[in-house]
Specification:
heterodimer, A: about 260 residues, mainly alpha, 11 helices, B: about 400 residues, mainly beta, 13-stranded parallel beta sheet
């Protein structure tokens, strides 16, 4: 397994797109920190990148990579190797390399310019989002045999998590606005990793806006140490569940 | 020449006979208690109180005397009494440390209570754990300056106001520091008065509580971290100049809360890190000019019941929402402000943007209607909604806009 992981890792890290992605992130975060007049404002602009661009790149790149290595996977499956090991090493390789370029592209500038609690949380959330969206991409790739269909599905999933889900939440909020929805909102935020990581960063950052009653409920729940651990556990749960599901599909798949 | 000498000598004589006496009070002095000194004194005398602790229950000052503390003698109310009751004009109380008044839910027990007097000066005293600190009732032309009032309020019921003024006129409240009371400074039916250079912070309820008090001014005060900020209600002709409103947090907390205010001026103030900088309800003809709103949740919340207010030449910097409102009818003017969120252009380079700025975002309207939507703050969805609303306003009030937004912040 180690050998395959190592092979996948080196293969991806040499990939021009990944190198470009790393440099792109590095340039964006450096220029944001230099353009904005305060580090916290730079962090705020960077938050949008972390929440939108990173999941998108991770999901598309990983899906395409899985499809492109279909022959390599077929070859390895014919060897005396467990499918579980093969899939796990592909996942580790993809997630590891994308997380590595995130750390260089965004982690280092954040540590240089805004090494605060908010900065650390943002790095942690970015890393978790990277891994979650690699898992989601592998799930999309294993479901659809057709490459176009698979990429379409993964883009749709990205769209769902970053846009449609919030729209649905807004719809529910207005349909049921006569009812107390604060607790429901806490549960709903756990159903979308992007929302959850946004709230975690905002609770550290923009407290003045989240002050209202819902904000207080969120702060009471996620703002404490236990809440923080719960949030991290939920995000890790996203990784485990989605990956485990794709693994099950892959083991049973007729290649 | 001789005549002049006679006159001079005559003046000297009368001068000597009418010289005010000084009565010394202290452990080594003949007079041991302040109450005794007051009964010995005649009008215009000075009672000189030396260092020590005086437990004299309630002291009533019924003559125009000066009460002067040397090295802060302690007047202790033993958690039972009102310490000084002033019932004469022209009284001065200076340099005491006044502690432990009684606490009552029936009476307003104060450290110094002034009953319908004029020209009373309370200056340079330290108040510690008092129920009400200085209490002025139907008084005229009094001066409260450089006092330091500290209490440790736990509940609103069991604490009083720092400086409490009721039905008074022409007061000057200058340079006091008030902390830990229910309301820092309380004004009800007080007219023609000035509140200047005070620091009111960490009070339970309001830093300044202000009702039915017409034609007053408060200038260069600091109101920081009070339970609900500052509240100004049912008043006309208030001037609020150069104050700092800082860090008033909480759901029902405001930099200033204005209710039923008219013909007033809010000029040159700084609103920093409040949940809402200014909250206006039923305010009319208020001029808001040259203020700085920075890092607030809402810089201003203006209810639709407010009319004919002019908001001009202010800086809006780093606020989550610039303006929030609850209706579509807007009869206030918002021209010539600087908004850091303005994205327009200035082709003729006259430092005025060529397209109007709309300070109310769709998302802030949504949050106003449905506070739970705060969960979606800074999400892709809401910024998309705001962008489309900016291009084609449908839900946000059509008239709430700055027609001449400035391109650069004003130097304030």
């Amino acid at each position: 397994m180690k050998k395959i992981t190592k092979y996948v890792l080196t293969d991806i890290l040499r990939n021009k797109i990944i190198i470009g992605y790393t440099i792109f992130l590095l340039l964006i975060s450096l220029s944001l920190f230099n353009l904005e007049d305060s580090a916290s404002k730079g962090l705020l602009s960077l938050l949008n990148i972390v929440l939108i661009i990173i999941p998108l790149v991770c999901v598309i790149f990983s899906t395409i990579y899985i499809y492109n290595s279909a022959e390599f996977i077929e070859l390895l499956v014919s060897q005396p190797l467990k499918r579980k090991q093969l899939w796990l090493s592909l996942f580790t390789g993809l997630a590891g390399s994308l997380a590595f370029s995130f750390l260089i592209g965004i982690g280092i500038p954040v540590l240089l310019y805004a090494a605060t609690a908010t900065g650390y949380i943002m790095i942690a959330m970015g890393l978790l989002l990277t891994v979650i969206f690699v898992a989601i991409a592998m799930f999309a790739a294993v479901i659809a045999r057709d490459k176009a269909k698979g990429i379409g599905l993964s883009i749709f999933l990205w769209l769902y998590f970053s846009l449609l889900f919030d729209g649905l939440i807004l719809f529910v909020l207005f349909q049921f606005q006569d009812y107390p929805l604060e607790k429901f909102m806490v549960v709903a935020s756990a159903l979308n990793p992007i929302d959850l990581s946004r709230i975690m960063v905002l609770l550290k950052m923009d407290t003045s806006a989240l002050m209202g009653y819902t904000g207080a409920v969120f702060r009471d729940f996620f703002g404490t140490n236990t809440g923080f651990i719960i949030a991290i556990a939920i995000l890790l749960g996203w990784i485990v569940v989605v990956f485990w599901w794709s693994l099950r599909k892959f083991i049973r798949k007729d290649l | 020449m001789k005549k002049l000498i006679y006159i001079f000598a005559g003046l000297m004589m009368t001068g000597f006979t009418s010289f005010a006496r000084i009565i010394k009070v202290g452990k080594q002095q003949q007079v041991r208690s302040i109450s005794q000194a007051i009964s010995l004194a005649s009008a215009g005398d000075t009672i000189w109180v030396e260092n020590g602790t005086y437990r004299e229950k309630n002291m009533v000052i019924n003559k125009p005397v000066v009460l002067l503390g040397i090295n802060y003698p302690v007047l202790d109310g033993e958690h039972q009494y009102e310490i000084i009751s002033v019932k004469a004009n022209n009284v001065t109380i200076k340099g005491f440390r006044i502690e432990n008044t009684g606490v009552s839910s029936l009476e307003d027990i104060a450290a110094i209570k002034i009953y319908s007097c004029s020209n009373v000066t309370v200056s340079g005293n330290i108040f510690k754990d008092t129920f009400f600190g200085i209490y002025s009732q139907s008084s005229v032309n009094c001066l409260f300056e450089n006092n330091k009032l500290t209490a440790s309020a736990k509940t609103e019921q069991a604490s009083g106001n720092g400086i409490h003024c009721w039905k008074s006129d022409s007061l000057r409240i200058i340079g006091n520091t008030i902390t830990g009371h229910r309301d820092g400074i309380y004004f009800e039916f007080v007219t023609n008065s000035v509140i200047w250079r005070n620091d009111s912070h960490n009070n339970m309820r309001y830093g300044l509580h202000f009702m039915f008090s017409n034609n007053d001014a408060y200038i260069s005060n600091i109101f920081r971290n009070n339970g609900a900020g500052v509240s100004v209600m049912f008043t006309h002709g208030v001037k609020m100049f150069n104050n700092y409103f800082e860090e008033n947090w909480g759901d029902a907390s405001y930099g200033i809360f204005l209710k039923e205010i008219s013909d007033s001026y809010i000029i040159g103030n700084k609103f920093l890190r409040n949940t809402s900088g200014i909250f206006m309800e039923g305010a009319s003809r208020v001029r808001v000019e040259k203020n700085e709103f920075k890092d607030n949740g809402w810089a201003m919340k203006i209810q639709a019941s407010s009319t004919d207010n002019v908001i001009t030449r202010n800086n809006f910097l780093g606020n989550t929402f610039d303006v929030g409102t609850n209706g579509t009818l807007v009869m206030n003017s918002f021209d010539h402000n600087y908004w850091d969120k303005y994205e327009g252009y200035d082709l003729n380079r006259d430092n005025t943007g060529d397209i109007p700025y709309r300070p109310v975002s769709l998302y802030s309207m949504i949050v106003e209607k449905n506070p739970s939507a705060m969960m979606l703050y800074r999400s892709f969805m809401t910024s998309l909604l705001d962008k489309s609303e900016k291009i084609l306003p449908t839900l946000t009030p059509e008239n709430l806009k700055d027609n001449y937004p400035l391109m650069k912040p004003l130097a304030l």
